[in-house]
Structure formats: C-alpha cells, structure tokens
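Cross-posted from the bioinformatics board.
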Amino acid sequence: QTVVTQEPSFSVPPGGTVTLTCGLSSGSVSTGHYPTWYQQTPGRAPRTLIYGTNIRSSGVPARFSGSILGNKAALTITGAQADDESNYHCVLYMRSGISIFGGGTRLTVL
Amino acid sequence: QLQLQESGPGLVKPSETLSLTCTVSGGSITSSSYYWGWIRQPPGKGLEWIGSISYSGRTYYNPSLKSRTTMSVDTSKNQFSLKLSSVTAEDTAVYYCARHVVFWFYFDYWGQGTLVPVSS
C-alpha cells in the first residue's frame, strides 16, 4: 500500500525560510503526481496553496512556492510570517485515479 | 462564488450507514471539467480522500474504503451524496465535500465540513 510521507512537525523563526517535503513510501514523486499543497488552521477547511507542483492558487502570497526536490515534492516558505503557523497537507494523484494525502506537517513559527 | 454545503445526521450508530449530501450553489454540477469529492479528517489527524464522482456518475474510490462506499449525483438538485456503510468509531471524522479539478487533480472549493460522530 502506497503511503505519502510528510514531516510531522517543523519550526521556523519569523522571517526565515522553511522547506516541507512530500514523499512516497516507494518510488519518487514527479510532476505526473500533480502534487498539491493545502494550508489548514484548526476548525477550518483546507485552503489550496499550490497545485500542479508549482502553480500558486489565486491570492496566495509569492512567499509560497512549490517544486520537486530530489525524489520529493517540496513546499518552500520564504520569509515566514506568524500567520503561516498552520498545518500543511500534501496530496498526490496516482494514475489509477486515486488521490493520497500525506499525514500533514504542523508548522510552528517562533 | 461557488459554495458547497454538507448536510446529514449529526450522529450515526455503529454498524449503521453514514449518509451525507453536498449541495452546490453558485455554479452547475454538470461540467466535464470537474469531479465532486469527499474527504474526511478524524479529530486531530490528517486528511483522507474518500472518493470522487463525475456529474455522469463515474466514480473513483479510495481502495481502503471502496467496499463500504457509494457515491451518487443528482444533477436536478445540484447535489452529490456519500454513503458509508457498516461504520465504526474509526469513521468518526469531519467530512468535507469539495470540487475536484480534473485537469490538475486537486480540490479547489471546499465545504465547511461537518463532524459526524459514530457512537451508540
């Protein structure tokens, strides 16, 4: 069974840069998995940050960027702000038509 | 502005069937550019994709839930629905409905979510 892996937690100082990753238990992540990143605060529905590996959703600040780094998808926040303290979820599309979410990363800004 | 709203019973008993409906407003459900999906999130845990359905009724289900999942669509009411049978406490979660963009395979609009506890 395929598992999508994310760091459980991460910390970044205000103004700092952090890269969260999204991997596969077997194999490499590619653009063909159409990596998507969501931001979620407690009690709220997820908000789309990045889709199609590196396309910022409407209204998303430029400090958020997506890429493929090595064999994983990556979300980089450059110049982190207090408002960025959230849970970040990645999801990968499989050619079989299914979507698999990672376990999420809790980001602390301090 | 597209809006999605989940509705259904607030509590389900173990072994029974969980039924939810998502009403779409501000846009039509009959577009080949989109599927319509269900995602859930157990308290304090991550997101889990349950399945997606096209307006014509083509479905894709999470293999781990497939045997218990049925999704349907009612274009006349601009609604789509989820049924999850034989529920246990592990099915307690916030259930979200969302629009699934076919070309990019992501969910762009989400409902606010509804908590469905499974308890006797």
